[in-house]
Design goal:
Blueprint lengths: L1 H8 L3 E5 L8 H14 L3 E6 L2 H4 L20 H8 L6 H10 L3 E6 L2 H9 L5 E3 L7 H8 L5 E4 L5 H13 L5 E6 L13 H10 L3 E5 L5 H8 L4 E7 L13 E2 H18 L19 E4 L14 E4 L10 H5 L22
Parallel strand pairs: 1-2, 1-8, 2-3, 4-5, 5-6, 6-7, 7-8, 8-9
Antiparallel strand pairs: 10-11
Length: 345
C-alpha cells in the first residue's frame, strides 16, 4: 500500500475523490479512474452508501438543504442522485489497482464496512459528518486496518473523542484530515495553521481534505508538512455533476500532482553553502580589483580599487585594511584581480 510507504518517507499522499462526479454512469466512473491515474494520483476514492443507509426518505423540513451548493434538495433525493452503486465497487477497485493506485472508500454505516471488508479493501475513510458517529468509528477501527478521519466542523473535544475511540480498539494506524465542510470552501475559512496544532495535540499524521477552488491551499499545506491531500476530481466542470463546482478537472489534477511533487523537491532539506548547480556561479561573486593603473608604492584608495565581479581577487573583507594605509608592492595594471603579492608587507 502506497499510503504506509509514503508516511514512512514523509511524502505527500494524493487522493483523488470521485464522489458523485460519475453522474450515475459506470463508463464515466472508469474514465475518472483512468484520469486520476494519468494525473499521478496515489489513490482513487469513492463513497459507499445508499440514500437509505445515510438518511430516510422524508420530505419534511429538517431534511431540506437550506443553503449552499445543494440548496432546496432534500437529503434523500440528493443522495439518490449522488451515490455510487455498490455493484460497481469491485470493477472500480480492480481498475484502480490495475493502474497502480490504492483504492479507498468511505463507508457510512455498518453494512458498508462489512461490504468493503469482504472486498478486501485495505483501509477506510470516515467523512467529516460522521466524525461524531462513534459506533461507526469503532466498527471501522476494529477491522485493524488504517483509518483516515476528516475533521470538518469538529471541535477539539470531538476530534479527541474520535481519536480515543480508535485507540481503545488497539488500532494505531490513524490519520486525521483538516477539513472545512463548506462547498466550495472560501480561503479565509481554511485555517491551515490548525494542521500544525492537530499534529501536536493528537500525535498522528495530519493531512488536508480540500474543497476550495483551485490548488493554492493544497500547495500551502505541503509547505507545512501535510501527510495527505484529498481533492475531488471530475472529467470536466462543464458537465454539471453534484460535486463538479469544487472539483479539479483531469488536467488541473495533473497540475496539482506536479505542483505537489515540485513543492516537496523545493522544500528539500536544511542546507547551507552552494548546491551542485550553484558551483559554477561562484566565479561571479565579488572580489577586490584594481580599477585604475596603480604604481609601485602608491597607496590603495577608494578610487583605485573596488569590490566588483568576478571573484578571482582578494576577498572583500580586506577592503578596509587596504585603503587604510597599505600600498602597492609592484605596478598593478587596470583590471587586475588583487592578490597579497600586490600588497607591501
Amino acid at each position: 500500500m502506497k499510503l504506509l510507504d509514503y508516511l514512512q518517507k514523509k511524502k505527500t499522499y494524493v487522493i483523488a475523490e470521485m464522489s458523485g462526479n460519475h453522474a450515475g454512469k459506470i463508463e464515466k466512473a472508469i474514465e475518472i479512474v483512468h484520469a486520476a491515474a494519468e494525473a499521478g494520483a496515489d489513490c482513487l476514492k469513492i463513497q459507499t452508501y445508499t440514500a437509505d443507509t445515510i438518511t430516510i426518505n422524508s420530505h419534511s423540513e429538517p431534511f431540506l438543504v437550506k443553503t449552499g451548493l445543494w440548496k432546496n434538495d432534500f437529503l434523500y433525493d440528493l443522495y439518490t442522485k449522488a451515490y455510487t452503486p455498490w455493484e460497481w465497487t469491485q470493477q472500480i477497485k480492480e481498475e484502480t489497482e490495475k493502474l497502480g493506485m490504492d483504492f479507498l472508500s468511505t463507508p457510512f454505516d455498518f453494512t458498508a464496512v462489512d461490504f468493503l471488508d469482504n472486498l478486501g479493501v485495505q483501509f477506510y475513510k470516515i467523512a467529516s459528518f460522521e466524525i461524531i458517529d462513534i459506533p461507526l468509528i469503532r466498527k471501522v477501527a476494529q477491522t485493524g486496518k488504517p483509518m483516515i478521519i476528516s475533521c470538518g466542523m469538529a471541535s477539539e473535544n470531538e476530534i479527541r473523542e474520535a481519536v480515543d475511540t480508535v485507540n481503545t480498539t488497539g488500532n494505531q494506524n490513524l490519520i486525521l484530515l483538516k477539513c472545512c465542510s463548506a462547498y466550495p470552501t472560501d480561503y479565509a475559512t481554511m485555517n491551515l495553521r490548525t494542521i500544525i496544532d492537530m499534529r501536536e495535540k493528537f500525535g498522528v499524521p495530519v493531512g488536508l481534505s480540500d474543497h476550495s477552488i483551485g490548488t493554492l491551499t493544497d500547495i500551502a499545506a505541503v509547505t507545512i508538512g501535510v501527510s495527505v491531500i484529498e481533492k475531488h476530481i471530475c472529467l470536466s466542470r462543464e458537465e454539471k455533476t453534484v460535486d463538479g463546482e469544487f472539483s479539479l478537472d483531469k488536467n488541473e489534477f495533473r497540475q496539482l500532482v506536479m505542483d505537489v511533487r515540485n513543492t516537496e523537491l523545493s522544500l528539500g532539506r536544511v542546507n547551507y553553502g552552494p548546491s551542485a548547480d550553484e558551483i559554477q556561479s561562484y566565479a561571479h561573486r565579488r572580489s577586490l580589483f584594481a580599477v585604475t593603473d596603480i604604481k609601485c608604492g602608491e597607496a590603495f584608495t577608494a578610487d583605485n580599487i573596488r569590490s566588483i565581479r568576478p571573484a578571482c581577487g582578494l576577498h572583500t573583507r580586506y577592503y578596509d585594511e587596504l585603503i587604510n594605509g597599505r600600498v602597492a608592492a609592484r605596478d598593478i595594471p587596470f583590471g587586475t584581480p588583487l592578490s597579497w603579492e600586490d600588497v607591501q608587507k
